[in-house]
Amino acid sequence: MGLFRRSGPVVFERHAYGRRRSWTVPRWLLLLLAGIAIGAGGLFYAQEEYLPPRLTPAESQQLQARLNEVTAERQRLKLALDQATAEAKAARADGERLAAELAEARQSVDRLQKDVALFDDVMPPDPRGGAIAVRGAKFANENGQLAYHVLVTRERKGGKPFKGVMELAVAGDRGGRNETITLGPVDVNLAGYQHLSGSLPLPAGFTGRQATIRVLDRPGGTLQGMRVINVR
């Protein structure tokens, strides 16, 4: 019983528990908040005054679409450039090939010219002489026609090409009778030499034995060269 006996009144001190402690904002926090506010304001001012205006969503879409178009055009131009480069390389290769072929052709022409000059030297001369020489000829009766191959040369080199005709006076027989017929004319146009070849129709039943070659400046004109050759 003695433990629960109140020995005296309990006194609470109001100043120890009833008084609230006052709280103040730290100075460093105020400085931090002020710095953040000043920085945000400066950034906003710089964006509004010095930086380009911000785009709207629609403008951003248009800009992206334009960028896609520019990218596609750039790709197309690159493909066109690659194709043009390949074509240029191919053209250059063709040019080199053509240059090589041209050089080879010139060499062939030089050899042919030398061969022609040698051929002209070794061919027997026309015994009759004349401005146009008949250097050789071959005739044959073939299926009612006279096949011919005549080589004529021009003794006077240079100047304009000679233009005239060749006429063939063919002696032969028809039905046991001797006849002479005139065939032609065949055009002649030569600067140095010319091969005249072909065939001319003969009268029915006619067989040629000998052909007289006459080179004239025009049909019925002045004789420029002549030679007589047998027909095979």
Walk me through what this model shows.
With 232 residues, the chain is an alpha+beta fold. The chain has a domain at 132-230: Immunoglobulins (Immunoglobulin-like, Sandwich). Helices cover 40% and strands 33% of the residues. It is rod-shaped. The termini are far apart.
Broad CATH class of one domain: Mainly Beta
What is the CATH homology-level superfamily of one domain?
Immunoglobulins
What is the CATH topology of one domain? Immunoglobulin-like
**What is the number of helical segments per DSSP (H or I, 4+ residues)?**
3
How many strand elements? 7
Keywords for this entry:
single chain; 232 residues; alpha+beta; Immunoglobulin-like; 4-stranded antiparallel sheet; 3-stranded antiparallel sheet; 3 helices; 7 strands; 33% strand; rod-shaped
List the helices and strands and how they pair.
Elements: H1 14-17, H2 27-49, H3 57-122, E1 132-142, E2 145-154, E3 162-174, E4 177-190, E5 193-201, E6 206-216, E7 223-230
Antiparallel strand pairs: 1-2, 2-5, 3-4, 3-6, 6-7
Short structural summary:
It contains three helices and seven strands; from the N terminus they run αααβββββββ. The chain has 232 residues and is an alpha+beta fold.
